[in-house]
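Notes on consecutive records. When two proteins share a document, each keeps its own sequence and its own token line. Never mix them. Below: protein one.
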Amino acid sequence: MFEAGQATLGKTDAASVALAVTMMDRRLIGNGCWNFMAATFGVWGVTAQGNNQSGATMFHSPEPSAGPTCCLDEPGSIVMPHLDTCDLQIAFDEFGAREGHPVLLLHGWPDDASTWKAVSSNLQRQNLRLIAPCLRGFGGTVFRNDKALRTANGAVLAMDAIALMDGLGIERFSVVGHDWGSNIAEALAIGWPGRVDRMALLSSLPRMGGLKMPPFRQAQRYWYHWFMATKRGADAIKKDPHGFARIQWENWSPDGWFDEETFATVSKSFDNPDWVAITLHSYRVRWGEAEPDPQSVWLEDRIRETRSLSLPTVYFQGMEDGVNPPELSKDLHKKFSGSFDRIVLQYVGHFPQREDPEAVARELAI
């Protein structure tokens, strides 16, 4: 099941992985896709330092860690480093090579920065400086300003990400995003094209050109969007945020893909006092049931007006994704005028970086 411009991988044994790589090499090198993957995710470049444009104050640990910890700081736990902006205290972790090429790792919903732990461990030998923040309203990323709007449209989340990179003195970087993080990565590429070298998107489609009303079958998969648009739905989520998050984990990937300990740890990040408000706004604003953050309207407009992107991009698609199935991304290459590849992972659902981190890391490191 190998097509030009597309690779289908299964998370089986080492022999099948080696066979898959061999077949990809033979099929894709002729049309440039394999060369693109090597250039995009193997040769990330060198660290480029820039000026702090946001005036943020940064506190961080002296050495990068081996991987992201849980975003929520608890008694006895390792406190994540953080960076302060006018409105936020952004918790993040840094790991990998301090002088390596910066790569921003953006988690999705409902998840936290620990989603990158296994992928980052598999990338330890690469010359990469990996930076994994918690998004606003998740775990240790908290609002410093009580008057700040609890907004979470993609553009304002991208502005948070730029503030973090400014505070770290990083001018140019690559970005890898899952779910919400995928759309933040897209917004970064559109809003700051001179700063994003290349990007990898996992499980969620780009929104450039504007969101269209999905057909009924997909609208059924998006039931939770419409549930959150109602007062009763919002009240139910406030009463049981963990239960609401858990049903997405259960529905979006094959049975048994996660263990109780993993979900229990990650769900602590949903105890952030603003998690529900941030969650509700993110989904309501997509369909016109809420207004985007006023500071970010310029970027929302630009995303809607953009028809294609030219930066090197790879898209990871799980064959068993229960919310964004493979048929939704089969024509995604039409939105990219530059190098683009779609990696299809067998036996994987909506969380490739958790379900098959070896395959994700391998494709990022080739």
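Protein two starts on the next line and is unrelated to protein one.
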Amino acid sequence: MASWYGEPFHGRRTASGEIYDMEEMTAAHQWLPFQTIVQVENLDNGRRTEVRITDRGPFVDDRIIDLSRAGARSLGMLGPGTANVRITILEMAGDPSCLELQVGAFRERSNAAALRRELEQAGLEAREQPGTDGLRRVIAGPFGTLASAHEDSSAACCSHVPRTRRSDRIARTAPAGSRGTRRTSGGFNIMPGGRL
């Protein structure tokens, strides 16, 4: 199932760092690498379109992709808001044989260090990477395949990573009591080729 998002997210920064423009052909997916190009087919009317993954979501159990308003318009799903879809990967960003996961982003260095230690204790390679936005990212990997990245990180991290509401993620503010923690997609941003 696909859905779409527009206001109030238009003009805000996405999980990839880009500014969201609801009139661009983009989408949010929970774990496909940013910049991956996918074809989305509306199974209800047969229409197809191509979008680029720039954000994380959707965070509703029965949905697999959140389209921009332009993407939803091209599939004829603006009115209904959702549609049954099939997704086909057309172009995977980076080197899909060498994937890393961003499992957290923190304003406080001690929180990043604590998560990195937890990942290492669970048997995963992990590192910290400071960003120009003031956040310190915790990166796990490398992983050989998308499936192993998703499976290994979920097994090691899910007990430590709280799910966030979309409003927490998009507004780039931490939930109350989190001491500077910001996480997406149950905590995971997949990055091909070891790059953010």
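For the record: Residues 158-196 have pLDDT under 50 and may be disordered.
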